């Protein structure tokens, strides 16, 4: 099978991770147990997830002309991801995410930095890259005008587009209409749609519901694809792993339900290690995990 080509347009961040026994209350200072810096950003995370699962991945994004930016580009290249269209920005710092992990959950503050220096004109110069893709994958940690232009270009060239609407914000009608799939979690779903809108776009919806699984609609029928039960260490990046894996599975021609099961397996494996990208599995791990699940049924 030829490797599918996936273009990821999105954020590239350095994650500043603190692990604590519990979250501090308002106005309270507590001692943490561990601190680490690790590559992140929803765009970069999804690119790494797709690359580890066997796709040919091109990244479109922006970093600051600083040590974080240089290191993040080096790490993307190490994963086999094309960084020809990652632009360095001299007047902005590389994006960061401040992440606190506790009690098997996380809280995140993102400072976009150079991610917001990406422009619709940058996308115009990358039109041929998008046009040659099997799937285009986007998130909302970059300007909405860039997302809108990317979806328009992909739609014009008949390229399937997955929009992961996180962080949650209302989407322009053109994005809702032209996207192939929308992958909100339960919170993002309530911000994206009122009841009428949701019914109109139900066949595009893939709603991630954490430990419960993923909800899809096929031929007017609602269906829950259950998640896999695993020991949880860190949920950071689970959604990004799901989206990267979903893009790979759909690009390979898997039916939607099978693609979601594959993505659920990848996401389950990702939460068994600390760090957004550190836990992202490789193809053999996912296939072995799915094989063992079948044997146990």
TrEMBL record:
Residues annotated as catalytic: 240 (proton acceptor)
Catalytic reactions of this protein: D-ribose + ATP = D-ribose 5-phosphate + ADP + H(+)
Top-level enzyme category: transferase
A Gene Ontology cellular-component term: cytosol
Binding positions (substrate): 13-15, 41-45, 141, 240
InterPro entries xref list: Carboh/pur_kinase_PfkB_CS (IPR002173), PfkB_dom (IPR011611), Ribo/fructo_kinase (IPR002139), Ribokinase (IPR011877), Ribokinase-like (IPR029056)
One family name in Pfam for this protein: PfkB
Cofactor(s) required for function per UniProt: Mg(2+)
One GO process term, biological-process aspect: D-ribose catabolic process
KW RNA-binding (keyword) present: no
Binding locations of ATP: 185, 208-213, 239-240, 264
Keyword field: ATP-binding, Carbohydrate metabolism, Cytoplasm, Kinase, Magnesium, Metal-binding, Nucleotide-binding, Potassium, Transferase
Stored NCBIfam families: D_ribokin_bact
Protein family per UniProt: Belongs to the carbohydrate kinase pfkB family.
Function in brief: Catalyzes the phosphorylation of ribose at O-5 in a reaction requiring ATP and magnesium. The resulting D-ribose-5-phosphate can then be used either for sythesis of nucleotides, histidine, and tryptophan, or as a component of the pentose phosphate pathway.
Protein name as catalogued: Ribokinase
Source organism of the structure: Geobacillus proteiniphilus
Gene: rbsK
